[in-house]
Write a structure and sequence with these properties.
With 92 residues, this protein is an alpha+beta fold. It has helices at 7-12, 14-22, 43-70, 73-80; strands spanning 3-6, 28-32, 35-40. A 3-stranded mixed beta sheet has the order 1-2-3.
Length: 92
């Protein structure tokens, strides 16, 4: 759980908050009117979060790529039925 602090108080205690994050391993959420505004996390935490996000994005891209190669235009036409076929000019 992160430590929450109002932005006005955070301004006055910034050095202390940085120490809590860096040396105490805490996460600090700065709030405005009771709503989360920003979070202070250590550089190591940020690096870990970013690498996890990149790995998740690569996994999604890989999954989408494998799905795209399995689908074919003919398969899509059959899936969507007549709505996917262009109208014929001889029918009215």
């Amino acid at each position: 759980m992160a430590y929450e602090i109002p932005v006005t108080q955070a301004r006055a205690e910034l050095a202390e908050l940085i120490n809590r994050v860096v040396y105490g391993g805490e996460r600090v959420v700065v709030t405005r009117h009771g709503k989360p505004l920003v979070a202070l996390v250590s550089a190591a935490d940020l690096e870990r979060l970013e690498s996890e996000q990149e790995a998740a994005e690569e996994q999604v891209i890989s999954s989408v790529s494998s799905l795209g190669s399995a689908a074919s235009a003919a398969g899509e036409r059959g899936r969507f039925g007549l709505a996917a076929q262009p109208p014929r000019h001889d029918q009215r």
